[in-house]
């Protein structure tokens, strides 16, 4: 597999600072929001938004792997991106991806539907139906051997999109890749040293015959947010992570990194996606 750059919480740029809290928000945050209202939402906004660029801007920057977290609202039947707060409805960005791919012969995208909130069996059926309506017949089916999935093979078949769907409702559907076929282990740390050890161990022990995501990011704890309410995730997490993950990526060779994702992929003139793509040009 080639090395592909991705964005973490890809649609979080769409979250407004007065957006309502979403089902994945921590219980403590929901309690504080009831007491402090918009003030609490403005604080949370600083820690929920992990991307500045829109989907189209990310695509133009070289991002080809997108991390989606989806929920619904009580008042309508639409699907929304969430990360502690509600972002935009997903139809628009999905169609932006489709248009980008249709305009370019040799491009593909990987869509990772990683988390779902407040979705029951019927909602999953509707969401899967929506994805097929948007992307069929360009969806790459799950192969027996992942080594068969090359850019040349996908172009020959007319496939432009791989959809990873991390819920049991996708099992048996050949259009959707289950979680076990594309592991994405979460570092869950604020320590740069621990992050690098985690990433290094992951690349050395990753399973065969599947894709693999290296999450090049730090995750704020509750205490991080509580003690830095006027800071944000970019200053406390994204920038410190980049200081250690960019050199780590630069030390890797062809085939070692499959997908790597990060926060604020546009930072430093897009050094993150450029570094990941450059791995395809290096030799072992």
From TrEMBL:
InterPro entries listed in its UniProt record: PI-PLC_domain (IPR051057), PLC-like_Pdiesterase_TIM-brl (IPR017946), PLCXD1/2/3 (IPR042158)
Domain of life: Eukaryota
Coiled coil location: none
CDD domains in alphabetical order: PI-PLCXD1c
PANTHER family: PTHR13593, SI:DKEY-266F7.9
Name the UniProt record assigns to this protein: Phosphatidylinositol-specific phospholipase C X domain-containing protein
Organism field: Ranatra chinensis
Lineage: Eukaryota, Metazoa, Ecdysozoa, Arthropoda, Hexapoda
């Amino acid at each position: 597999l080639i090395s592909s750059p991705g964005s973490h919480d890809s649609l979080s740029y769409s979250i407004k600072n007065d957006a309502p809290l979403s089902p994945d928000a921590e219980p403590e945050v929901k309690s504080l929001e009831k007491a402090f209202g918009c003030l609490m939402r403005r604080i949370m906004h600083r820690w929920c938004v992990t991307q500045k660029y829109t989907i189209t801007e990310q695509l133009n920057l070289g991002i080809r792997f997108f991390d989606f977290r989806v929920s619904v609202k009580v008042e309508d039947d639409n699907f929304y991106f969430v990360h502690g707060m509600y972002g935009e409805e997903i139809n628009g960005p999905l169609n932006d991806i489709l248009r980008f791919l249709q305009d370019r012969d040799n491009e593909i995208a990987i869509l990772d539907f990683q988390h779902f909130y407040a979705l029951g069996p019927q909602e999953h059926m509707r969401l899967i139906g929506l994805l097929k309506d948007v992307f069929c017949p360009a969806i790459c089916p799950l192969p027996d051997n992942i080594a068969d999935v090359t850019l040349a093979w996908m172009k020959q078949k007319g496939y432009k999109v791989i959809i990873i769907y991390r819920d049991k409702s996708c099992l048996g559907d050949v259009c959707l890749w289950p979680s076990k076929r594309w592991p994405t282990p979460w570092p869950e740390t604020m320590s740069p040293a621990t992050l690098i050890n985690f990433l290094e161990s992951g690349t050395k022990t990753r399973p065969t015959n599947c894709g693999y995501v290296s999450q090049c990011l730090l995750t704020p704890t509750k205490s991080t947010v509580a003690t830095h309410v006027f800071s944000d995730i970019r200053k406390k997490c994204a920038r410190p992570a980049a200081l250690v993950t960019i050199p780590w990526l630069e030390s890797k060779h062809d085939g070692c990194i499959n997908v790597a994702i990060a926060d604020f992929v546009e930072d430093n003139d897009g050094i993150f996606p450029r570094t990941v793509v450059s791995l395809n040009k290096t030799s072992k």
